[in-house]
C-alpha cells in the first residue's frame, strides 16, 4: 500500500534528499515542508512556509533563543494545518526538530507516525562547547542559551514514535529515555559515485599551481573553517609540515567563519575570521605560496581534490562526525584524524592514524611521515554507511514499523571529560 509522507527540514533536502527521492520513485506521495529550501528533489512537492512575524529583537537574551524556535514551530504548524484542510493527512512525518519546526506535529496529526532525526544533543561541557580551553563560553548566559537549544529536541523526542541518529556517538549524547526509541542508521553515502571519481589534476590559477595525483598534497575539509573543526590546530601544524616537506601543497576547503557568519561555533573575539587571525598569528612561518584556500567547491571538484590527496587531515572536537571523514575513508586516502570520540567510533578503518586533537606537533609529524611513504590506498568497505544499505533500512523504519511512545525518563548521558589546557600550547603564539 502506498503511503503519504511529510518531510520537515528547515533547509530541505538536508539529510533527507535521497530517501525522499527513493520514496517518491516507489510511488508514495511525498511532500516536504521547509523555511529556506535548498534545492529540488525529483518527485517531491515542496512547500515553503513563512514566519508569522519577525523574531523578537528587544527581548531578554535567553528568550531570543526560545522565541525563534517557538515562532518556527508555530509557523510550521500553520502550514501543516493548511495541508490538513486540503485533505493531506500523512501516514508518516519525518522531521529534523533542531530549529523548532517539529514542536507541534502531533497537535496537528496525532495519529501520524512521527519519526525525528536526532542529530545532536547539547551539553555545556565536554562536547564542542567547553572541550577546548582556548575557547570557553564567553559568559554564564551563553551556557544557559546552549542548554536551551535542546528544547525543540526534547519536545519532539517526547512526542516521537521513533528517532533515527547517524552514529553511536551521536546517540550517546541524548538522555537515556530518548535513546530507548532510537535506531542508529547513517544518512548514507553514495559509495559508487565517490569511487567513480578518478584522480585528476587540480589547477589553481591565482597561485600558478597545478597539482596531480602522486604530488605531496595535504588536504583539509570542513564546512566552516573554525575551531570546532580544528582549523586552528591544523594551521599551526602547517609550518612544520612545509619546513620538512617544502615541496608539499596544502589544500583547504571550507567557508570562512568567525565574524558575521559563525558556522557551528561562536564569533572570533579577535574580530576577524578564524583564518585571518591564524594567518596573523603564524606570520612569516606560514608560506602562503604553498597553502591554498579554495572556499567551497562543487561535489565533483571536491571528489577530484580528495582523489589526488596524499594525506588528508580531519580534526573535530566531540561533535557531529562529518561526511567528509567517511568519504575520505571510502577512497582509502591515508588520513590523520583527531582521536576524539566521534572519530574513535571508526578507529578500525584502513589508513586511519589518530593523534591528540591538541598536539599539532604530533599531527605535523604524522603528516610528514605519511608523505615520505609510497602512495598507497586501501578503500574501506563502509557497508553500514552505504546508501545501498541505509536506504532500505530507513524505508523500512519509516513505513513498515510501528510502536508505542515511550514514557520519558530524564537521565542525561555524561559528557566527555573536559580536557586540561596543555602548558606548551601558547608558548610561541604571535598576536
TrEMBL record:
Keyword set includes Iron: no
Keywords: Transferase
Region described as Disordered: 405-431
Highest taxon in the source lineage: Bacteria
Single annotated GO MF: glycosyltransferase activity
Comp. bias (Basic residues): 422-431
GO biological process, one term: lipopolysaccharide biosynthetic process
Domain Glycosyl transferase family: 27-193
Gene3D superfamilies: Glycogen Phosphorylase B
InterPro entries on file: Glyco_trans_4
PANTHER family: GLYCOSYLTRANSFERASE WBBK-RELATED
Official protein name in the record: Glycosyltransferase
Organism: Desulfobacter postgatei 2ac9
Amino acid at each position: 500500500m502506498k503511503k503519504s509522507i511529510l518531510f520537515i527540514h528547515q533547509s530541505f533536502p538536508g539529510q533527507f534528499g535521497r530517501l525522499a527521492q527513493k520514496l517518491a520513485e516507489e510511488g508514495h506521495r511525498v511532500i516536504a515542508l521547509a523555511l529556506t529550501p535548498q534545492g529540488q528533489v525529483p518527485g517531491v512537492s515542496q512547500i515553503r512556509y513563512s514566519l508569522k512575524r519577525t523574531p523578537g529583537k528587544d527581548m531578554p537574551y535567553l528568550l531570543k533563543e526560545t522565541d525563534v524556535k517557538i515562532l518556527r514551530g508555530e509557523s510550521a504548524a500553520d502550514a501543516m494545518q493548511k495541508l490538513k484542510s486540503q485533505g493531506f493527512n500523512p501516514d508518516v512525518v519525518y522531521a529534523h526538530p533542531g530549529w523548532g519546526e517539529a514542536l507541534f506535529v502531533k497537535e496537528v496529526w496525532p495519529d501520524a507516525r512521527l519519526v525525528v532525526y536526532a542529530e545532536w544533543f547539547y551539553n555545556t561541557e565536554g562536547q564542542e562547547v567547553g572541550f577546548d580551553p582556548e575557547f570557553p563560553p564567553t559568559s554564564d548566559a551563553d551556557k544557559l542559551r546552549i542548554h536551551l537549544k535542546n528544547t525543540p529536541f526534547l519536545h519532539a523526542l517526547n512526542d516521537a514514535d521513533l528517532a533515527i541518529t547517524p552514529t553511536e556517538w551521536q546517540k550517546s549524547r541524548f538522555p537515556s529515555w530518548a535513546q530507548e526509541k532510537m535506531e542508529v542508521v547513517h544518512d548514507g553515502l553514495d559509495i559508487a559515485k565517490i569511487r567513480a571519481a578518478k584522480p585528476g589534476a587540480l589547477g589553481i590559477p591565482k597561485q600558478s599551481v597545478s597539482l596531480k595525483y602522486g604530488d605531496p598534497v595535504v588536504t583539509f575539509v570542513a564546512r566552516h573553517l573554525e575551531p570546532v573543526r580544528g582549523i586552528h590546530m591544523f594551521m599551526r601544524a602547517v609550518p612544520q609540515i612545509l619546513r620538512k616537506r617544502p615541496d608539499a601543497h596544502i589544500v583547504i576547503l571550507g567557508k570562512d567563519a568567525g565574524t558575521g557568519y559563525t558556522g557551528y561555533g561562536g564569533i572570533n573575539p579577535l574580530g576577524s575570521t578564524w583564518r585571518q587571525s591564524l594567518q596573523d598569528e603564524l606570520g612569516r612561518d606560514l608560506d602562503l605560496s604553498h597553502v591554498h584556500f579554495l572556499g567551497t567547491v562543487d561535489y565533483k571538484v571536491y571528489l577530484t581534490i580528495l582523489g589526488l590527496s596524499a594525506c588528508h587531515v580531519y580534526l573535530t572536537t566531540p561533535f557531529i562526525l562529518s561526511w567528509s571523514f567517511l568519504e575520505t575513508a571510502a577512497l582509502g586516502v591515508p588520513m590523520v584524524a583527531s582521536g576524539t570520540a566521534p572519530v574513535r567510533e571508526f578507529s578500525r578503518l584502513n589508513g586511519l592514524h589518530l593523534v591528540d586533537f591538541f598536539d599539532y606537533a604530533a599531527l605535523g609529524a604524522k603528516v610528514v611521515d605519511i608523505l615520505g611513504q609510497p602512495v598507497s590506498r586501501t578503500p574501506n568497505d563502509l557497508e553500514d554507511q552505504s546508501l545501498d544499505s541505509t536506504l532500505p533500512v530507513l524505508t523500512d523504519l519509516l513505513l513498515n514499523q510501528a510502536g508505542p511512545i515511550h514514557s520519558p525518563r530524564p537521565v542525561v548521558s555524561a559528557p566527555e571529560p573536559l580536557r586540561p589546557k596543555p602548558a606548551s600550547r601558547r608558548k610561541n603564539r604571535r598576536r
